Hints:
flat, 2 domains, mainly alpha
Amino acid sequence: MSELDMSESTSSSAQQKLGQFGLYFAELRRNLIHVLIAFAVIFIALVPFANTIYNLIATPLQAKLPANAHMIATDITSTFVAPIKLVFFVTLMLLFPFIFYKIYVFLKNALYVKEKKIFFFFFPTSIFLFYLGIALGYFIILPAVLGFFMGISPESVTPMTDIQQYLLFCIKFFFILGLIFQVPLLIMVMIYFGLVKIETVKKNRPYIFIFCFFIAMFVTPPDILSMAIGGMMIYLLFELGLFFAHFLKQPTYEK
């Protein structure tokens, strides 16, 4: 083959790769636009109910406040900004299934048949666990945590929480719970794809138990009770993932 033919072949290959990259970029942009449009539609639809949504998230705190205490706004714009921030967060949470679907649409042509089945199992499970963590946090864990902090408040102090600070606390609290509830899925994914052997995980249970409480130190409120509850929850979720990992089979790849 002459140098001219080799040069033309190389140029043709480079142009083909550039064309494929352009197609991938166009597909990515199209899916991103769909996500942004869906976000805008949901956000605009929820804005009129911003105060109602904020009242819902404030209910656990109001139920634990003393009779003479109430929530306050230390900034003149807080009464408007805080509910809008919450609507933004709620919109993002509601959009998760659509975002994961768009990720699948973008990646499906590059996935094997087995990987597509795995995707449709792990991603919906991840979303379910995330929502489950938030639900348990709102109905069970948050009231318990707020009750603890209200209970240890000195009698000479009347708790009056700023609505912005409470919102930031709740968003962080729910987001962390949603991530913590991904632990079973994370363990299953690691074992399923051979990143770690199940025997190795079992052998290191004592270290993992300690590590769970170490993580809880950073993701729970700064008190012993919350840390203990958080550490035990993370470890139980780890054991749940380890249990279900026994039923997984190693993937086989075919287009």
